[in-house]
Amino acid sequence: MISINGKVGNHLAFATVVVALAAFAGGCGEEELTGWSAGMGVTDVSGDVGTLMGGYGFCMNTPDYCRYSEGTHDPLLSHAIAVRDNVTGEAVIFISVDVVGILRYDIDQIEAAATARFETEFGIKDFDGTRLVISATHTHHSTDTMGLWGPLDGSGRDEEYAAYLRDQILDSAVAAYADLQPVNIFWSDTATAPNYDDDEYSDDTRVMTLRFADRDTGATRFTMTRWSAHVTNYPQALGAFSAGHPGTFTKQMEALTGAPAVYFQGMPGSVYSEAYLFEDGNEGPDPICQMDDLFPEGYQDPDLKVSFVSAVTCLGTKLAERAYAALADEVPVPDTGLINRHHTLSFHPQTDIPIMFGYTMFSYVEMGPLHFEVPSAEERQDPNSTMDTHFNWVTLGDIQIITTPGEGFPSFGYQIEDVLAPMGGKVLTLGLGQDWLGYIPTEQQWADNNDAIVYNKALSGGPYLPKRYLEDLQVMVEAEVAAQK
Q: 282 pLDDT band (50/70/90 cuts)?
């Protein structure tokens, strides 16, 4: 692992890019002719004291009601894992960032900058930046990366910090690629961890882990774990940056494996979790588990109860213990190739449900104005008006890894798995990937009259997003299945 310390479409045939290229030069010394290579890079993306924080509440033009960082309890990090197929040279870099979300506006700039950067660093010409698969953990104690949680005059988003964030994310990708070494990859998905949600149709408690092991020694180089839950176990009162349970999970998983670990967000929709849920027989909210702070050297908010620190430590620790135990059941990922598909989909944005005071999600976007490429309110009256978003679908051996541009509900994740079923193998869905467009309930959930998810519907791209996503994915899968015959 390489760590870099920073400063604290409507036309499917033309919308999908399937990336293929000759073998890359550099990255791991002597070129391996078969199997996988993988590397990891980490950078710090924590903001400065006084930075506006995102994730909780709305200030509504009252700066005194906004949340400003008083320090960093535990660092916000960008973790990157590069994977290369040594036969074809194809490579993908999976990146998990400890922020509330990342807009396509920023991801497009990171991907564009990657081309020149990879040529400078590695001599790779015409590197396609869409190989960077970027997602957020959705911690509610990061900077306001969208601009939604400031006084709603555009001041919630710090553009200087945004530029720093983009640089640090790209630096982590470069570090991961520079760290490429021959590995074997293993998969485990037998663990579950308790959570709860307002999804009437599905739950997703699965803990999925990819272990990257040194090909010669078998020792763990690093792990990549995916689980679904909002990162909200610290309350709104915490005035410090924190990765939340992904941070405590990562630290405990590293202690158990003796190697770096990365947490990726799954389908968080309306999904939440508490440490007490891990305690068998405990039906109340009072935690049985009590643990000390894993980051005692960080900023200690005097207004935060010790019980919250203990709860976040317990949650991350117990999750790591389950993920680690499941490694006993791991199976090898066959080195049958790597395919990266980057797809642009167009959908009609429709959000008529107000978040508060009669304002919809896109009302706030227009008030900013914020970096969402959304048709105006007048243009959205036309049902043919559209906006674009992206997703990546990566085949890694017999595993299908696919991103969703927001906080997908578990039911939406299972619908994606159903569409991908003809491809065979396992499916790993990643939330808040390649864009953030709020919550993503299913088309059926949009049709239901369920008061429990009215807020989720209000803070979303509307019912046409999940519909079009699944339609486009279906066409992509059918085309690939037909080509294999």
A: low
Rounded average pLDDT over 471-480: 98
Alpha-carbon span 51 to 53, nearest angstrom: 6
Q: What is the pTM of this model?
A: 0.94
In one-letter notation, the amino acid at residue 222 is F
What SS3 class is residue 76? Answer: coil
DSSP secondary structure code for residue 380 in this structure: G
Q: Are 194 and 205 in contact (CB under 8 A)?
A: yes
DSSP class per residue in 218-268: --EEEEEEEE---B--S-TT--SB---HHHHHHHHHHHHHSS-EEEEE---
Among 298, 313, 166, residue whose Cα is nearest residue 240: 298
pLDDT tens digits along 412-458:
999 999 999 999 999 999 999 999 999 999 999 999 989 999 999 99
For the chain, domain boundaries: 2-484
DSSP string over 99-117: SS---HHHHHHHHHHHHHH
Q: Which amino acid is at 118?
A: F
Q: Check pLDDT > 60 for residue 39.
A: yes
